[in-house]
Each structure stands twice: as structure tokens, then as C-alpha cells.
């Protein structure tokens, strides 16, 4: 996964912010261990989103069992499914990177 970190400049000097270093490390892990990184990310995002949903719904205390189940679901299903779905789509649309193909891939991955 080549690409920028979303900001200008670069370098590896000590002046980089913690967020910038963390983002670079995340992208490095995504490149080296894509499936594992996507699984962990999906699990964490599922947990955060469920925590926010519980609070916005008026729960006084976070239901830990529910939160854990959502995280496990994101880790065990969400991350791997998205990973392999996009691998299949990349295979089907091999070599095509025009905007029409990207739109088709987006449409197929949203179903």
C-alpha cells in the first residue's frame, strides 16, 4: 500500500506528530499483514461504534457482553469478509482502474 500519509512533508525526523507516526505504522502493518490488520481494525471499529450507539441510545452502563460480541463479529467476520471480497473483485476487474470500474466495484461491495 503505497501512498501518502494524508499530509504534506515527510521525513522520519523526530518532529513528526504521534498521530502521523501511528498512521504510518498502521499503513506499514496493512502492507505487511493485510488480513490481520483488517481483522483487528474491524473488531476495534465495531467495538467503538457499538459503545457510541449504546450511549446515544440512553444506556446508563455499557453492556460488556454485547460489546464483546460485536467486536468478535467484526474481527472474525467483518475484517476477513471485506478482505477476501475485495481480492475477488480485484481479480474480476484485473487491470482496470478507470472510474467506471471503481464505481462497479463499489456497487458490488455494498450489497
Automatic annotation (TrEMBL):
Its main location: membrane. It is found in: Membrane. GO terms for cellular component: cytoplasm; membrane. It comes from the Eukaryota. Keywords: Membrane, Transmembrane, Transmembrane helix. It is a multi-pass membrane protein. InterPro entries: Mpv17_PMP22. PANTHER family: PEROXISOMAL MEMBRANE PROTEIN 2, PXMP2 MPV17, PEROXISOMAL MEMBRANE PROTEIN PMP22. Belongs to the peroxisomal membrane protein PXMP2/4 family. This is Peroxisomal membrane protein PMP22. It comes from Aegilops tauschii subsp. strangulata.
Amino acid at each position: 500500500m503505497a501512498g501518502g500519509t494524508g499530509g504534506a512533508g515527510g521525513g522520519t525526523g523526530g518532529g513528526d506528530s504521534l498521530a502521523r507516526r501511528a498512521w504510518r505504522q498502521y499503513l506499514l502493518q496493512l502492507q505487511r499483514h493485510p488480513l490481520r490488520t483488517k481483522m483487528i481494525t474491524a473488531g476495534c471499529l465495531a467495538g467503538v461504534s457499538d459503545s457510541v450507539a449504546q450511549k446515544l441510545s440512553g444506556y446508563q452502563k455499557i453492556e460488556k457482553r454485547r460489546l464483546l460480541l460485536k467486536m468478535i463479529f467484526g474481527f472474525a467476520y467483518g475484517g476477513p469478509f471485506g478482505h477476501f471480497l475485495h481480492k475477488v473483485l480485484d481479480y474480476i476487474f484485473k487491470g482496470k482502474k478507470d472510474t467506471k470500474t471503481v464505481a462497479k466495484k463499489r456497487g458490488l461491495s455494498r450489497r
